[in-house]
Write a structure and sequence with these properties.
Blueprint (H helix, E strand, L loop, with lengths): L6 H14 L3 E11 L3 E4 L6 E7 L2 E4 L6 E4 L4 E4 L5 E4 L7 E2 H9 L10 E11 L7 H4 L5 E3 L7 H14 L7 H21 L6 H4 L3 H12 L7 H8 L3 H12 L3 H19 L4 H8 L4 H12 L3 H17 L5
Parallel strand pairs: 2-8
Antiparallel strand pairs: 1-9, 2-7, 3-6, 3-9, 4-5, 4-7, 6-10
Helix pairs in contact: 1-5, 1-7, 4-5, 7-8, 10-11, 10-12, 10-13, 11-12
Length: about 325
Amino acid sequence: MTQRINQATQFDVLGDVLETLRFHGSIFFRSMLAAPWGMSLDITQFPRFHIALSGGFFIGMDEDKKTVEVGEMDIIMLPTGNAHWIADRPGRKLVSSAEAGSACELGNPFFQNGKITNNLMCGIVNYDTDLAHPLLLHLPEIIHIPHIKHDSPIWRIVEMIGEEQNSSVGLNGPITDRLTEVLFLKLIQEYAATADVSSGFFNVLRDKRLLKALGLLHQQTSASWSIDKLAEEVGMSRATLVRHFRESVGMAPMEYLSQWRLLKSHTMLKYSNESLDRIAGRIGYSSAQTLGNAFKRHYGYTPASLRQKASKTQMALIKGDGGI
């Protein structure tokens, strides 16, 4: 039995990562369904999840022909955005989820003939695809969380989403979107706490000393860290810390810190009006020039060009011209 990790510390690290990557959730489908029914979902860059509010269903990915049975009050998540299908039974005729969703929005939902067998809710979590983090690289294709209890924090969030949708017009709104993001975080927490993993980013989250090291780098990003100082803080030799950290994260602690600082700077440059000097000081760089040089080496463009691109995108959205 895998020992559950410290939830408070885990939330700090995962919450910081998800906030910095600008995760944004939404519900794209919710409907009562009468069997037979089936929908196909194209590949995407973003995590999606399906919640069996009532009734069970099956899910499968065409490339491996395997299916997973999802029971009532189960949640199935596809963190890597694989193309897949969902249906009351394998082998059903499939319609695209986009088409089914549009029909719901127009008040003429599909799969309504006969006895209602399922109540289904589907969501997606977008993030800034210009950014990368080991968390994203180490998520599996499918996360299945079965037998969720009514009094579980996860299911209470699901119920809150449903209540908010019932009291407002449409599937989404600011509160529903925020609740969807919280649900995604709780699902990742549940996976991190219970999955049988021996390597990768989630292994760090279950190793108390590595988790402490990771937490220190996240919570004190601007500090003048050295591998010796970090090893002393977590009670490990520098060689042991570097070896175990590298085995799980894919890089040494100081390399991770450098990449995390640049990732934080990218988010702050793109989504805030803070000066480069101010950002440099907040994440541990001695000057704006030092940060600018490191930023260009890592991303291939300057902080100024990122700000200019972000400004143009924002203006296009305000004018209704679309954007990237």
